[in-house]
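Quick one:
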Amino acid sequence: MAAKAEAAAAVIGVVLVALVSVFYGNWRPDRSSGCRFPAIYNFGDSNSDTGSVSAVTRPVPYPNGRNFGKPSGRYSDGRLIIDFIAENLGLPYMNAYLDSIGTSFRHGANFAATGSTIQPPHLRISEEVCFPLSLNIQLLQFTQFKARTTQLYSQVQNSDIKKTLPIPEDFSKALYTMDTGQNDLHDGFTASSMTAEQVQKSVPNMIIQFSQAIEQLYKQGAKIFWIHNTGPIGCLPFFVINYRPKHDDVDQTGCIKSYNEVAQEFNKQLKDMVSQLRGKLVDARLTYVDVYSAKYSLISEAKLHGFVDPFGQCCGRNGKFRECGKKAMMVNGSEVDVDGDSCSNPWEYISWDGIHYTEAANQWVAGRILSGSLSDPPLPISEACHSHNPLHLSSRPQINYHDRGSNRESVFS
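Output:
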């Protein structure tokens, strides 16, 4: 029996590798008219953290990272949207700035950190939860990183060291990605027990801080921005299960309507801010990316795309996202056993741990946003350096990222 099981596992492995090859053969765009970004610099929270918090505190425990075969610093079974962005642009996966031992930063650095917010600690909605690596700290890290690596690049003679450093001229040619805001809203809905209306009143302050961050990066030489809006927070299993809404506050999908309305207001103000900055930062290229629509479409039509209950989660008990990867937790001063194992079929789940998405879900969302169909201006990410010229858009080849019908595009499909 054991021999048969091993043989079956080997066959499945070969099939998965073949599917990956076929998928990426179809999914990768023709970059003949693309921007050929030499590097990516990313800012955000756990939706794009590839190792910052693991380097600062403790490794994100297994089964997080199970598709990598080991913990990867990511809150997911595998790749995040930022990983698919790197793959799409032909760049290596991003290394966390804080995970610097034996690390190459030639093709960029990731400053995103789990728990991060747009607002600095003293301006956060809640003072009950405080994580220090907020967006303004990430900007300070980038400023120091750029200054020190630029100086070192001109001084170092050792070629092995030099090839791990960013080329100074590449900072102005790089893509600057931003995916943050979810934790700002999360704080208001949880730690502070604020109403949705009260949380929404704090949105303008978040947008001001976000705008200032973009302008600071621009002053540092950043020119090309790819800015994600925030997802449907009212659809996360953590909220649906732990903050059960009244009957009239549930939408047709089963999500918390008022929470999603706050996210939509955040996104509206973010889009307006990006539009205003285009007039102010005239030689910059700013792309607003509607991640919300992609994620909500996936959640509301989960079964159509091959996923199970959108409010179920693969790792840990439903609604208990902090349990994933843990065997025991301290509760009221006592150690309590928990089931932090993961399911055997993560490719059928949208939610990994109640807050974060599975690799399969991230891949599905990436397939929708990277084509530019949900972006303003409607350019694929590989052409984000171009101005929004209708003639240019009509002349470029159309890229179909999801021409396989309504079935989910996954390495596991």
